Structures are given as C-alpha cells and as structure tokens.
Amino acid sequence: MAPATQPSTSELEDFRRQVAAWMTTNRPPDPNFLLPQTFMEIGSERVLDFLREWQYKVWAAGYLGIAWPKEFGGGGLPTIYQQIADQEMKRLRVPILFNVIGLGWAGPLIVDIGSEDEKHTYLKGILNGEDIWCQGFSEPNHGSDLGSIQTRAERDGNTYVINGSKIWTTMGNYAKYMILLARTDLHAERRYSGLSFFLAPMQTPGVTTQPIQKLTGEYGFTETFFSDARIPAHSLMGDEGQGWRIAMQTLQYERGAAAGAAGGPAMISIYMDDMLAMARDVQRDGKPVIGDTVTRDDLVKFMIEEKALLLGEKRADIPTLCSEYPGSLSLSHKLRATEYFRRMRQYALALQGTQGSLYIGDPDTLGGGFWQRAYLNNFALTIGGGTSQIQANIVGEHVLGLPKD
C-alpha cells in the first residue's frame, strides 16, 4: 500500500533529478535499426529483444510500476513519483516501454479487481517484461461493436473451450497472455449479459496468429484464431456473465479515463516544438517556411490547442474545476488528443510540400520520414480503444446527456 504521507516538494525535485540522471546515463545506444514510434510497430525479434531489455532495466532501477503494490513487484510509493518518472522519460525521449497492454490495461485491472492469486501470478511478469500481454476484444466482422462478439467459450470441466477469432491483436504473435472477451451464454436475454472475461494463456494448442501489415509497412498487429483451444477454468476473471462490465472498466484505462497504469511512454511524444523545428528546416522560395505569415498563424493555432490539451490534463485532477460536467475532460481526452495529433501531423506533411509524399528509405525524405510514420501511426490511435465516432457518442451520452438516437 502507498504510504499515508505525501512527499515534500524538495523530495520530488530530488527524485526528478535522480530520474533524469539515470535515464541520461543508461539510455541505450543507437541499435542501428529502426526503433518503433509506438508499441503497435513491434514486428521483429530484434526490436522486441531490444525493448524488452530496456524495460527490464527501467523496472529494475525502480522507475516502472512505482505506485503498484510492492509485494507484486511494484514500488509501493505515491503515484506522483511515477508521474515524474514518466515526464522525464518523455522529455528525454528514451525508448518506449513496449508491454503497454499489460502495463496500462491488464495490469491496472488486476491491481484494482483481481484476486490475490491473480496479482501474484501476473503483475511482476508484466513489469519486468517477461510476460507480454495482448488484447482480444475486436473481431473481424464486428469492429467497435463489442456487444456482438461471437467468439465462444464453453465450459468443459476444468477448462473452457474457445472457438472464434480476434483481429488487430497488437503483439499477438509474441504474447503470453490475452485479455479475452468471449461469449459464454448464447441464450442470455441481453447480448451483453452473455459475455465473460478471461486472462487467457496464448501458448495453447489451437491458438494461432497471422501477422497483419500496417500502413507503415511494419507488422505490429495479428489476427488471432481459436480452434477448440482449451484454457484453464481459473482463467475466468470474475464470474460468468460479468465480461461486459470488466471490459468497460478495461477500456477506461485504455482511453485514459481511469488511472492506475504502471507508467512509461507507450509512444514517442511528438509536440509542437518538433513541428516548429521542422518548419525552420523546410525551405519555400529559398526561405524557411516558418517565416510565412499564414504558416505562422496556423502554427500558433496548433500551439494554443496543444497547450489547452496539456492544461486540461491538469484540470481533470481538480474536481472543483470540473463540477459542471464531472468526468468530461477524462472521458473526452482520447477524442480530443488523437484528433488533434492527426491534424497536426497531417499539417506537418503539408508544410513539406512534395517531400511530404515520400517515405522511409527515400534519400530525399526530411528527417528520414519521421513525420510520415507519425501521421500513419496516428490512425491506429483514432481507431484503437473505440473509434473517434464511438468516442463522440460517449461524450454526447455520458457527458452531455444526449439520447442515443
């Protein structure tokens, strides 16, 4: 449990300096191959091995899982310490921490509602990078409509027999476990009532994966197939029929509306400072494009919007500033942030002119195609965890109180 007393300002400042010094000293050297901008781009063993070693070092140094219970591999300290460590990792742009579905979704869920046995079994392996997790929610024919899931889980003695398929399974081909939503009752009066939630082992006969190539050219996703795959009955989390409620709680972590993540950057942070630097390098009529009046006006608008997003994150932690629409900032953050970054990165390509149409491997790309990768990667962010259209519905219904129809 976290200690009752909160650290002083000087203690936090000392900790920040300590984190910065360690990250600077221990940053891994350039591996001479392309590192991913996000956790959804890990498509080779050498990238995985590099990131797994890095995550272990960060955890062993005490900068990952700082607020998770100490008895399960965490640090047992107040959350503010993890927030500071995350800020320094982002600022210094060290490599990402790859095991995001474990660190950010499955892990917090287990910490909050898991049994003592589940906590002992799973949490430490998530933190040290030994056990990779993936997510089995979306299906090929149902997209964001999780209530229509068809993957079956039938109880047979001490096992559940799984049949069906899941899609967009990030790192499914490397994962040891999957948070799996499957249908255990075909005759439930409400379709949501027939769903159950599993912490399912992936190294099981009858479970196979097929890599899916992304827009970026990498293979970070798979389709996962279950053919009479038998998983232990104790893989069930909660009771049968509670899957929808548990899945919705999981999505709260994924969408950033609930706290509890172990920490660490899931992707390289790309902000307006980066765009401004690029605008100084791009030439138009022999002059830096940042000197153009219309361009400067556009850049200032993006800067204002970005600052509002960052301040909104702080405001969300102060209840008195959100009393009119409680939860509005946290529930709308994913929609606002992912759509902002999509537009910002698209504008960065527009500033490059014809160079914006080039890609990695072309010698004439600006910055090795950094912004092209960033723009294409952002589509996964506007889709994963519920599309922007789904997020708009959530804001309309749960914040503004609008009717579903």
What is the compact description of this entry?
The chain is an alpha+beta fold. It has helices spanning 9-26, 45-60, 79-92, 100-113, 116-128, 243-254, 272-281, 293-315, 328-351, 370-383, 388-399, and strands spanning 133-136, 152-156, 159-170, 177-183, 195-201, 207-212, 221-232, 236-237, 283-284, 287-288.
Kindly report the CATH topology of the largest domain: Butyryl-CoA Dehydrogenase, subunit A, domain 3
Determine the fraction of residues in helical runs and give it as a percent range.
40-55%
Structural class: alpha+beta
Total helical elements = 11
Count of domains: 3
Q: Write out the strand line-up for the largest beta sheet, numbering strands in chain order.
A: 1-4-5-8
Cα gyration radius (Å)? 22 Å
Series of H and E elements? HHHHHEEEEEEEEHHEEHHHH
Net shape: globular
Counting DSSP E segments of at least 2 residues, the number of strands comes to 10
Largest beta-sheet details = 4 strands, mixed
Distance from first to last alpha carbon: 45 Å
List low-pLDDT spans.
Answer: none
Q: What is the residue-mean pLDDT, rounded to a whole number?
A: 92
What is the CATH architecture assignment of the largest domain? Up-down Bundle
Strand % is 5-15%
* CATH H-level superfamily of the largest domain: Butyryl-CoA Dehydrogenase, subunit A, domain 3
In CATH's first tier, which class of the largest domain applies?
A: Mainly Alpha
